[in-house]
Amino acid sequence: MEVKGMRRLYIFDMDGTILPESTGLLELAKKLGTETQLFELEKQFSERRITTYQFTDLISKLWGEIDKNVSFSAFQDAKKIDHISECLAEIKGRGSLSCLITMSQDVFASHFSIYGFDHIFSSTYPPHSDEYFKILSPEDKPLIAMDLCNKYNLDFDECIAFGDSLSDEPLFSKLTETIAVNASPELKKISKYNYSGNSILEAYRMISF
């Protein structure tokens, strides 16, 4: 149960959760005219013919450098779940923190900062550059959350997580307060709350304060 006055970390997934029925990669592919190529790479990945690292590397080689105006246009055109800013404002009003953790690339995910997330973690684009890069996996989600909790002196066990698919399972399996948002049957089975609808604020308010 949510304790009044308790500072907590609220963790949000992006693809499928605050981007209903879509992903950052798909929204970029639409803008770049490469949906067919993306679907082929995703098929190869789902069939385990390429690894996460190979998939991400091939995507960046397909697209090359992406102009920020193009990525922002893709972001603007993407359908998002309603009331993101309002939800984050309520979290901040309680003295708590919010973060977005996604395996998608920063070239798209970073634009969500305009909604008020305290932190955004995503895979680096492009991964084949000579600069430092990080490609996130589902197993990174709880590790990132733990690091943030240590940094801000928060209790990891009291974190709240929002997600939609089994890529959120490594995080959900370690927490009690979990909210499946328009989620797969598999994730619903391991979630405390299940929400179907168009408002992340409504999902957030399912928690007992």
Automatic annotation (TrEMBL):
Gene3D superfamilies cross-referenced by the UniProt entry: HAD superfamily/HAD-like
SUPFAM superfamilies named in the record: HAD-like (SSF56784)
InterPro entries per record: HAD-like_sf, HAD_sf
Pfam family for this entry, one: Hydrolase_3
Name under which the protein is recorded: HAD-IB family phosphatase
Organism: Marinomonas rhodophyticola
